[in-house]
Amino acid sequence: EDEERQHDEL
Amino acid sequence: MNLFRLAGDVSHLLAIIILLLKIWRTRSCAGISGKSQILFALVFTTRYLDLLTTFISFYNTTMKVIYIGCSYATVWMIYAKFKATYDSNHDTFRMEFLVIPIAALSLLVNHDFAPLEILWTFSIYLESVAILPQLFMVSKTGEAETITSHYLFALGLYRALYLMNWIWRFFAEGFFDLIAIVAGLVQTILYCDFFYLYITKVLKGKKLSLPA
């Protein structure tokens, strides 16, 4: 996967 | 956002504020491990670097900024402002014993071998054990002030609530992040002994003291 991973939690 | 996650975040925020207020109002950081607070500052710094690259939500950004700010303020109070009250003789846990193996582990076990991702992984692993110097200090002195116990309880509860959030998200969204879940489990387990003492002693109005 090319897209940067998003961490939506704190 | 579900209720468990929100409650977890609030509990986390409450813990940080309880600690800040305790130190500020008593003008003393006695009984507080500066090393745990340095580790938490490191956790927030390495995890929230995405503030510079990704915008998730106003809520997300605000909370991250508050966590980082409070964390550095706490470290500053312990090592500068109220340094004279810092109990360094009892804060003897060696941080490198945690940081170095965790740095190695985050290089080996991560979702993606990219700088930000490795730092995020490092912060997740480090957070799970960052409280150890504080717990070590409590066990060494055999006691903790009641306000310190409230701090530890709120801080432990936060990850336990996140575990519920992850169960919720797994069923509701099919979302799961194994690194966060395993580290969160380890983190919560480390607090279990303390939870037991908190419920059986502190909630009944007694000071938290360990049997000699």
Automatic annotation (TrEMBL), chain B:
One Pfam family recorded for the sequence: ER_lumen_recept
Keyword hit for Protein transport: yes
Stored PROSITE patterns: ER_LUMEN_RECEPTOR_1, ER_LUMEN_RECEPTOR_2
Gene Ontology MF terms: ER retention sequence binding
Major subcellular location class: membrane
Subcellular location: Cytoplasmic vesicle, COPI-coated vesicle membrane; Endoplasmic reticulum membrane; Golgi apparatus membrane
Keywords noted in UniProt: Cytoplasmic vesicle, Endoplasmic reticulum, ER-Golgi transport, Membrane, Protein transport, Receptor, Transmembrane, Transmembrane helix, Transport
Cellular component aspect of the GO annotation: COPI-coated vesicle membrane; endoplasmic reticulum membrane; Golgi membrane
One GO term of the biological process aspect: protein transport
Bilayer topology annotation: Multi-pass membrane protein
Keyword tRNA-binding: no
TM annotation in the entry: 65-82, 119-138, 150-168, 174-199
Entry similarity comment: Belongs to the ERD2 family.
Protein's name according to its UniProt entry: ER lumen protein-retaining receptor
